[in-house]
Amino acid sequence: MLVTIFCGIATSVIFLALRIYTILPSRSKSGHRSVKQNPNSTCSIAVFLGSGGHTSEMRSLVSTLPFERYQPRTYIYCHGDEMSLRSISNLESGKGTIINESSYNLLPLPRARKVAEPLSSTMISASKTLFASLWIMFLFPLLQNPGRPFADVLLINGPGTCVVLVLVSWIRRILGLSHTKIIYVESLARVKSLSLSGKLVRPFVDKFIVQWPEAGGKGDKAAECKGWLV
Amino acid sequence: MSTILVTVGSTLFPSLTDAILSPSLISSLNTLDVRKLVIQYGRADLPPDLSIDVDANGNGTTVIDELRIEVMRFTDQFEKLVGQSDYVISHAGSGSILTTLRRNPPIPLLVVPNESLMDNHQAELADEMGKLGYLMVSRVNELELNLPKFLGSNWKEEIEPFPQMDRERFKDLVDDLMGFT
Fold first, then answer.
1. What is the pLDDT of residue A29?
2. Which of A23, A148, A184, B76 is the most buried (most CB within 10 A)?
3. What residue intervals traverse the membrane (chain A) (predicted)?
4. pLDDT > 90? residue A62
C-alpha cells in the first residue's frame, strides 16, 4: 500500500518536473516574441510594489508606460505599506487622463517576510501570502472568467514576496491555460550581482532585465540589459 | 550661507545621524558657513546629548551657534526638501540618489553607505556612480575629513552632468514582449 502511494507521488513529481522543464521560457524556440497585437488593443497589467526602494523604482518604470494601452492595471502591495499606496495614487493621478475610476484596482497581500524575520515565522507568513495570492490571482479570476488569466503581464522587481507571485502565476502555465507573462527588473542598486529573488525567479520569467551589464553574467547566459531604466 | 539635507530614507542608520550631529561636526559646519541642517533620521534614535524636543511624529528644531537644525523621522515631501537644499548627504538608496541627481541642475550629493548592512550591494551602486563622477562617496568615519571638500566650490565644478531618464527603454521592452512592436 505504502509503496503504491510512494510510487504515485514519485511519478507525479517526475511528470510535474518534466512539464515545468519543457515549458521554461528560456527553452522556448520562438524566443520571447508574442503574437503581434493590434496597436489599438489593450493589455491588462499587474504591478507588484514591494515597498521602499523597490516601490520607487517600480513607480518610475510604470510611469513610462502608455496607460491607454496597459489597462486595466492591478497594483499588488503588502498590507500597511503606506508608501506604495501613495505611489499608486501618485502614478494614477499624475497621468492626468483618468477616463474612468475602474481603470485600476488594488490588491493588498500579507507580507511574505519581514526584514530579519526568523525562518520559522517566515514559513507561516509566507504560506499566508501564498494562500491569499492563490485566491486573488488564481481561483477568484478562474471562477469569474476561466478563459483569461488575472492579468496579461505581471511586473516584479523584488523583494521576496514576488517569488510567491511567480509561483501562483505558474499554475495556469503548468495546466496549459492562457497565462500571465512575467517581467522581472533587477534593481539599479545591483551593480555586480543578482539579488536572491532575482536568482530564484530568473528561469521562470519571460523577460529578465538587469540595469548594469555586469550584474547579469557573461556570454550566452547574460541577462538582457538596456542600461538604466529608472 | 547654505542648507544641507541629510537623509536615511526608511532605513536604520544611526551611525550617520550620530556622526552628523556630533559636537565636532556641528562646529565645523558652523565654520563652513552652513546655516541650516535638515535631518531625516528614519528608524534610528537621535543622540541623547543633543538637546532637542521632538513632537509625536519625531519632528523638532534647535539652533546651535548660527546653525539651525531641523529633524524629522520621515517625510512625504522628500522631493521638495531636496529642491530647497544646496547639498544632500544621503544613505546609498537608489531612490534618494536618483531624486537628488535628477534635479536640474543636479544637487551636489555625498553618499555614505551603511556598512552595518550584511549584504551591502548599495555601497556598490554608490562606488560605481562615484567613479563615474556623478557624486562623492564617504565612509562614516571619514565624514569630517571629506566635508570641506564636498562643500567647497572646486569639486562642484567637476561633477559630471547626470543623464536624464530614457522614458522609451522600459516601454519598448514591455511592448516587445506583449507583441506591440
1. 54
2. A184
3. 6-24, 123-143, 149-171
4. yes
Please name the residue of chain B whose CA is at the shortest distance from the CA of residue A155: B174
- Give every CB contact of residue B103 below 8 A, 6+ residues apart in sequence: B82, B83
Domains along chain B? 2-178 (3.40.50.2000)
What chain A holds in terms of domains, given with CATH numbers, is 38-225 (3.40.50)
What one-character DSSP code corresponds to residue B165? Answer: P
Query: What radius of gyration, in Å, describes the C-alpha atoms of chain A?
Result: 18
- Determine the Cα angle at B97 with ends B96 and B101, to 5°: 115
Give the helix/strand (H/E) hosting B87.
strand B87-90
pLDDT given at position B66: 92
Kindly report, residue by residue over B131-164, the tens digit of the pLDDT.
Answer: 999 999 999 999 999 999 999 888 888 888 899 8
Please state, rounded to an integer, the average pLDDT across all residues of chain A.
89
- Pick out chain B residues at pLDDT < 50: none
The torsion of the CA quartet B110, B112, B113, B115, rounded to 10 degrees, works out to 160
**Res B118: pLDDT:** 62
Q: Which residues of chain B does A230 touch, with a Cβ-Cβ cutoff of 8 Å?
A: 94, 98, 165
Helix (H, G, I), strand (E, B) or coil at B133: coil
According to DSSP, the residues that pair with A148 across neighbouring strands are none
